[in-house]
Design brief:
Elements lengths: L7 E5 L12 H13 L4 E4 L11 H15 L5 E5 L4 H14 L3 E5 L8 H14 L6 E5 L1 H4 L5 H10 L3 E6 L4 H10 L6 E4 L5 H6 L4 E3 L7 H12 L3 H17 L7 H9 L16 H14 L5
Parallel strand pairs: 1-2, 1-8, 2-3, 3-4, 4-5, 5-6, 6-7, 7-8
Length: 301
C-alpha cells in the first residue's frame, strides 16, 4: 500500500445536479478540472458537501465510475460512505474497491449514538470486508452526527486493521486531532484537518493536510496554505490561512450544506441547486457571500 499521495488538500467535491435533481456529469467534469488545475491533491466523492445522503446507491455507483474514468488517475479519488447500517457500508465499500477507487472515507453512523464497542465493530467490519491493501479513512464529524469518534477507538481500529490508514477530523478540536495523531504514531497513519479555517493549525500539530470544501470555490488560495507550509514558509502559510478564513466563516451564516453550491453558482460555475429539502441561501446571506467573494478576488467583474 503506497500512501505517498495521501496528503495535501483534498476536496469534498460538490455534486452538481440539473433541474430534476439528477447528477449533472458534464458539470461535475468541469468542477473536477477546476480543482485539479487549482492544485488539489485528491478528490473525495460523496462527502458531506457532496450530499451523499441525497443519492441512491445506483446513482453513487454510476457517478463514481464516471469520475474515475474522467479523472484518469490525475489525482487519487476517494469515495465517501455515510450510511447508518453496517451492511450497507460494506456493500458500498466493496463497490468502491471493485471499481478502482483509491480508498474510502467512512463517517460514524448518524442519528444513533454508538458505544465505543459498537463503533469499533462497525469500522472493523467495513475494513475487513475489503482487501487489506485497500485504504480506509475514518471520518469524524460530531457536528453532523451528534457525537465524536473517541481517539481510543481510532487507535484500536488502526491497530486491528492494516488498511485503516488515516482520518479526517472535522471536530474543530485541535486537542482531539492532536490526540489522534499521538495515539496512532505506531504506524503510518495520515490525519487530515477537516475544518477549512484550521488547516494551518492542523499541519502544525502533525496533520498531513486538510479536506477543504472551500477549495472548490478558491482552489489555488486554499492549496497555498499547504504548499507554503511544506516549503517551510510558515508565516506565509499562516497568512494564506488568514486570507481564506473570512470567506469560509461567512458560510456559517447559511444552513448546511448549501453555502458551497451557492458560492459556486455566484462565481459562474452553474452547478445547480442543493437537493431538496435544502434551498439556496436568502438574498441577505448571498449579499454577505458576494462581499467576501469580491474581497478575495473571486467574484467575476
Amino acid at each position: 500500500m503506497n500512501l505517498d499521495k495521501l496528503k495535501g488538500i483534498l476536496v469534498p467535491i460538490i455534486t452538481p445536479v440539473d433541474a430534476e435533481e439528477n447528477v449533472d456529469l458534464s458539470k461535475l467534469d468541469e468542477m473536477i478540472d477546476r480543482v485539479i488545475n487549482g492544485g488539489v491533491s485528491g478528490i473525495l466523492l460523496f462527502g458531506s458537501n457532496g450530499e451523499f445522503y441525497m443519492f441512491d446507491e445506483a446513482t453513487m455507483e454510476e457517478t463514481l465510475v464516471h469520475t474515475l474514468k474522467y479523472v484518469n488517475k490525475r489525482v487519487p479519488v476517494y469515495f465517501g460512505i455515510g450510511a447508518i447500517r453496517t451492511s450497507q457500508c460494506v456493500r458500498l465499500a466493496k463497490m468502491a474497491e471493485r471499481h478502482g477507487a483509491d480508498g474510502i472515507s467512512v463517517l460514524q453512523p448518524m442519528f444513533l449514538k454508538l458505544t465505543n464497542e459498537e463503533l469499533t465493530l462497525h469500522f472493523n467490519t467495513i475494513a475487513s470486508a475489503v482487501d487489506k491493501e485497500f485504504p480506509v479513512l475514518l471520518y469524524n464529524n460530531p457536528g453532523r452526527t451528534g457525537y465524536g469518534i473517541p481517539p481510543v477507538v481510532v487507535e484500536t481500529v488502526a491497530k486491528q486493521n492494516n488498511n485503516v490508514v488515516g482520518m479526517k477530523d472535522s471536530s474543530g478540536d485541535i486537542t482531539n486531532l492532536q490526540e489522534v495523531i499521538r495515539r496512532t504514531s505506531f504506524k503510518d497513519f495520515r490525519v487530515f484537518g477537516g475544518k477549512d479555517t484550521l488547516v494551518f493549525a492542523s499541519l502544525c500539530v502533525g496533520a498531513v493536510g486538510g479536506v477543504c470544501s472551500i477549495a472548490q470555490v478558491i482552489p489555488e488560495e486554499t492549496v497555498r496554505i499547504y504548499n507554503e507550509y511544506v516549503a517551510g514558509n510558515f508565516e506565509k502559510a499562516r497568512e494564506a490561512q488568514y486570507h481564506i478564513n473570512p470567506l469560509r466563516l461567512s458560510q456559517d451564516k447559511a444552513s448546511f450544506p448549501v453555502a458551497t453550491k451557492v458560492m459556486c453558482n455566484m462565481i459562474g460555475l452553474d452547478v445547480g441547486p442543493s437537493v431538496r429539502p435544502s434551498l439556496a441561501s436568502p438574498d441577505d446571506i448571498q449579499d454577505i457571500f458576494a462581499q467576501e467573494l469580491k474581497a478575495i478576488g473571486a467574484l467575476p467583474k
